[in-house]
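Researcher: We're teaching a course module on how sequence relates to structure. For the next exercise, students receive a sequence and then see the predicted structure as tokens, so they can try to spot secondary structure elements on their own. Here is the exercise chain.
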Amino acid sequence: MKNPYLLSVATAVVGFAVAWTLKPDAATAPTATATAPETASPVARSPRTTAGPRSGASTNRQPKEVSASDFPLADQAERGPKSRDEARMLRLTEALGLSIEQQGGILSLIENTQNSADGSVPVLEDLTTRGKAIEEGLASLLTPEQREKFEELRVRERDNLIEVRAQKLLTDAIAEIDLSPEQRDEVLARLRQKAKADMQAIPAAASLLFEKSILPTNQRELSVDGVLLLAKVGEETMADTAAEGYEIVRRNQRGELEEILRCFDGVLTPGQMGQYQAALAETKTAMENVPSRVLPPGLDPEPAPVSPPETIEILRESLEHESDFIDSDE
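Model: And here is the predicted structure for the students to work with:
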């Protein structure tokens, strides 16, 4: 059964090619068959040196033939896993020492859990229910030692997610703001606290079904940003029309912006804050056409009421465009 709130994920693969052009050395170029007549002035004739050690040096300057063995890491990468899910299973097998039977059991457990998704309940409730089912399944599949190692992985994954969210917000800011090292450290500490509070809003069981979970979820789940946005929106307050639902998203994003700005408030000077505000204003201008992409094609300016599940689905689809953008409009 297809998960009713899956987001489409577009992937792009970038290939590269390296061309080598080999030119023969001047010292090894074929000599001309015709010789010039010996009527030239002695000044024009240069003394001829005899072959000696210089011949060896000339040979050493010959171009090397390039082979795959010159790039062992790149060659290894080409033979490596071709998907994130394959890589995740390889990492789990490496960290936990999984057998072939255990690997198959985990894949079946995830597939069955995803097929049991219930779109009629709030997202967090559904993710938590299915996440607990995975926890119970893993308890029977793994040995006590493997379960202990798996819990260590989960704790580290949560810490990594917190760090990623904090570092991303800081990186986006310092690309626009001239911050001193001391300011960077202070802002990063605040952003880490914010990211930690955000993650605490998501039950640990639900995090097993993130799009980028430590488990191979086959990109059939929501991203962390998507889950957080839907959690903050609160599906029990969903509007009856897509337009009203979109406004709910915008209001919650303004609340998110307010929380982020508090992390910079008191650390940035007025001039630095102006730099950040200007960057937000330019982002807002570039994203002014987002509403036309979020609302379904052909939607009337005053759309007819739709059922709450349909509104929820529209908001889930809108996350593809909205999850990385914080609206700064009043």
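Model: If you want an answer key for the exercise: The longest helix spans residues 144-174. The CA atoms of residues 165 and 195 lie 6 Å apart.
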